Amino acid sequence: MRLQNRSAYAFLAPYLLVFTAFWVWPIIDSFLISFQNTRVNPWTFNLPLNWGRLFGDPAFYNALQNTLIILIVQVPVMITLATVMAVLLNSPLLKARGIFRFAFFAPVVVGEVAYAAVFRLMFNVDFGIINKLLGGVGISPVSWFADSHAAMVLIIIAVTWRWAGYNAIIILSGLQSIPEDVYEAATLDRVNRFQQFIHITLPLLKPIILFCVVLSVIGTMQLFTEPYLITNRGGPGGGTETLGLLLYRQAFQSTNFGYASAIAYTMAALAVVISLLNLWVGREAK
Fold first, then answer.
1. Is pLDDT at 286 greater than 90 in this prediction?
2. pLDDT digits (tens, 9 = 90+) for 78-106
3. Does residue 34 lie in a domain region?
4. Would you state the pLDDT for residue 2?
5. Average pLDDT over residues 176-204
6. Domain that holds residue 223
7. Which positions fall inside the ABC transmembrane type-1 domain (predicted)?
8. Residue 249 scores a pLDDT above 80
9. Domain assignment present for 136
């Protein structure tokens, strides 16, 4: 038995070494850096410098507010849309379901730069197709990149478009695991389709939906690509700057790695707290 254990650990050793070197140690080192003044050479230990600045920095509160707005608005909309899409994709009346499933999942595999460029063209104030469609119904053109509220709506639309299909496929897998006998028994009891969805499908899908919510919360707390590429680095005037973008600016533009590390750990802590809160609410709702 001991020989077998040694053999197992010998095979695991390369992975454990790589895991420690490139995952565990960077996390520990980043936490230590958050307590150092990295604007001097050599770096010096200064406990309150970065964390004290964090709680008094208007840029941090602006980024936190923008991130939470996206989280509160976008995640429920996306999960609701993904659930509806999953139900439709699971319908036996839908022909060529494989093609539709691929089409809804495809945005995830599209290159981020390519899709950001397409969104910038679509929402262009002068020749974008979105403003032309709005003009067709009598709505004046919207300055998507010059107005902070419109830019925030644009970010929410873009993130929803990119990830709704991904979550729909996950929820679809949960739908397909529900036994058909449950629906047959409900049909015999003269329960209509809408009532079946409310009282059978949604309760049985709660663990899957909760899983998607937690993933979406973590992803939103790290949101970087859309505000950086679509609204030109969090513009206008920081109106769409997120915590991920603020971290990037501090680390790689201001080379203030200590402050960036403090922001990173704050993001991680918020993601954990919100995710645990969602899990607690989901458990209490059972």
1. no
2. 999 999 999 989 888 888 888 888 888 89
3. no
4. 67
5. 88
6. 57-282
7. 64-278
8. yes
9. yes
Q: What is the pTM assigned to this prediction?
A: 0.91
pLDDT tens-digit readout, 160-189: 999 999 999 999 999 999 888 888 888 888
Distance CA 66, CA 55 (A): 16
Residue 18 lies in a domain: no
Within a domain: residue 88? yes
Q: How many CB atoms lie within 10 A of CB 238?
A: 17
Dist. CA 190–CA 187, nearest whole Å: 5
Three-state SS string over the chain comes to CHHHHHHHHHHHHHHHHHHHHHHHHHHHHHHHHCCEECCCCCCEECHHHHHHHHCCCHHHHHHHHHHHHHHHHHHHHHHHHHHHHHHHHCCCCCCCHHHHHHHHHHHHHCCHHHHHHHHHHHCCCCCCHHHHHHHHCCCCCCCCCCCHHHHHHHHHHHHHHHHHHHHHHHHHHHHHCCCHHHHHHHHHCCCCHHHHHHHHHHHHHHHHHHHHHHHHHHHHHCCCHHHHHCCCCCCCCCCCCCHHHHHHHHHHHCCCHHHHHHHHHHHHHHHHHHHHHHHHHHHHCC
CATH number of the domain that residue 208 is part of: 1.10.3720.10
